[in-house]
Design goal:
about 300 residues; about 45% helix; globular; binds manganese (II) ion
């Protein structure tokens, strides 16, 4: 059975103000298997703090996955070699922290800057040149990932957030260049819905390269409340023998750096308090588990639950 997790940002307005002990206790209580955490924070905690966090995760039976969105100062495809070196140092530090909490998945825009877009339209030649810079840095980092038992997952995101990997097909070609058993693809249903011709086919295209999977509706509500082809995607995940995690990454609250970074300009939560978001998360979890197990009807439950 695929473990199901929740991204740390669901309840929060800012990426760096999460109280992880209460969050992990809540996720376990709600029935989640995994807490996805901010690598930019966890990679810089000291060993005592990491031991404390691991003890909490273990006590609650939770796995930890690391999420990353490289800031511009760490862009592995930057034209400035100092920025690329900075990125390699930063991600190396994060990768080396992961075994300390038993984390084996690094995922996100991990191969270039998140929202570090070209300032002018680029040609395919220019895109290849940027890809070459990314591949060179990634090859160094994959050695560190291999040494630390980490699957290094590269997230395919929509055109407004990155320019190198917008489709599963592009990601497979990238994986082939990386040529490491620890290089994997992260597909995210929100991004797939924008860029892929066929979301279900994209899962089959990623095939054995798929290492992580993010779930959210087309507008980033919790899975099961919208219109994406969940039953068909679940079947495709089974068909490719995907045994990894499904981590929800919904964003429904306005405000703060989170709201800014995910371009949320309206309140999708309906003014929900934390307790209501807890209920929504739990309902989505039950629904997604049912879809993956083929037990429940897959029709959207939004009309009856909200
Ligand atoms: Mn994602």
């Amino acid at each position: 059975m695929n473990p199901i997790g929740m991204h740390y940002g669901f309840w929060s307005h800012n990426w760096d103000e999460i109280a992880y002990i209460p969050l992990m206790e809540k996720l376990a209580w709600l029935g989640f298997d995994i807490c996805e955490v901010a690598s930019a924070e966890w990679g810089y905690y000291d060993d005592a703090r990491l031991r404390e966090l691991k003890a909490c995760a273990d006590h609650n039976g939770l796995g930890i996955t690391y999420s990353i969105g490289l800031e511009a100062k760490y862009d592995l495809a930057s034209d400035d070699p100092a920025v690329r070196e900075n990125g390699i140092r930063h991600v190396t530090r994060i990768l080396e922290s992961m075994p300390k909490v038993g984390a084996a998945i690094l995922n996100g825009v991990s191969y270039a800057g998140w929202q570090s877009m070209p300032t002018w339209g680029i040609t395919m030649d220019e895109k290849r040149r940027k890809e070459d810079l990314s591949v060179a840095g990634m090859k160094q980092l994959l050695k560190v990932a291999e040494d630390n038992g980490v699957l290094y997952c590269c997230e395919v995101v929509n055109r407004f957030e990155q320019y190198l990997l917008n489709t599963a097909e592009e990601a497979v070609a990238f994986m082939q260049r990386l040529d490491s058993p620890n290089a994997k693809i992260l597909l995210d249903t929100f991004h797939m819905n924008i860029e892929e011709d066929d979301m279900v086919e994209a899962i089959r295209t990623a095939g054995p390269y798929l290492g992580h999977f993010h779930t959210g509706e087309n507008n980033r509500r919790t899975p099961g409340t919208g219109k994406l082809p969940w039953k068909e995607m679940a079947q495709a995940l089974k068909d490719i023998h995907y045994e990894g995690a499904l981590v929800m990454e919904p964003f429904v609250r306005m405000g703060g750096q989170v709201g800014r970074d995910v371009s949320l300009w309206r309140d999708l939560s309906g003014g929900a308090d934390d307790a209501k978001l807890d209920q929504d998360a739990a309902a989505s979890l039950r629904w997604l588990r049912g879809v993956m197990e083929g037990l429940l009807r897959y029709k959207s439950f939004r009309a009856t639950s909200l």
